[in-house]
What we know:
The chain has helices at 47-50, 111-122, 132-135; strands at residues 29-39, 61-74, 77-78, 83-90, 99-106, 136-145, 147-152, 155-160, 164-170, 181-182, 193-205, 208-211, 216-226. It has 228 residues and is mainly β. Strands 1, 2, 3, 4, 5, 6, 7, 8, 9, 10, 11, 12 and 13 form a 13-stranded mixed β-sheet that branches.
Amino acid sequence: xxxxxxxxxxxxxxxxxxxxxxxxxxxxxxxxxxxxxxxxxxxxxxxxxxxxxxxxxxxxxxxxxxxxxxxxxxxxxxxxxxxxxxxxxxxxxxxxxxxxxxxxxxxxxxxxxxxxxxxxxxxxxxxxxxxxxxxxxxxxxxxxxxxxxxxxxxxxxxxxxxxxxxxxxxxxxxxxxxxxxxxxxxxxxxxxxxxxxxxxxxxxxxxxxxxxxxxxxxxxxxxxxxxx
Length: 228
């Protein structure tokens, strides 16, 4: 049986998503749900409004994320109800690339769903996440983990086995009943980003040991699809 873990770093095809490929083998896919990110920026991540043209507040970016898939498919394979964990490391400005990334796939996923999600989150499936194949210089790996994504009021609790433990919640504004939302952006994740922070943001994976409690976070409703 094929392994569900990539043991070694794998270089991605760095050609632009629009470049012609001899045998693209592209499969239609779509994901709707919610995504959270927690990074090492001391204030709200400047990448959202600068679209990667401004460096992170610490000069480099270290990020973990979680994705809750409310509905989705990869070809004929249903992805609804699955969760994803992410680890991303960027040496400077987001737009300059040379990212390192890893993905953790819900251990409830079928083999076909696992394979499809790895292609989606590595950029190989093109579409919304196709930019990963341009910006990620080193794919650290993919592995199955028990991934949970729980909404508790305004809190989002994400766990990825013993690799990631996080709690993210919106930053309060003057009207405490309304979130602070940066709307109508051209950010790749989605146009409307809720400004958030983390009461817990701990990573122990792929040689990284991060603690981002109290640092910048984002919440975004996602509607991604591909390959076009």
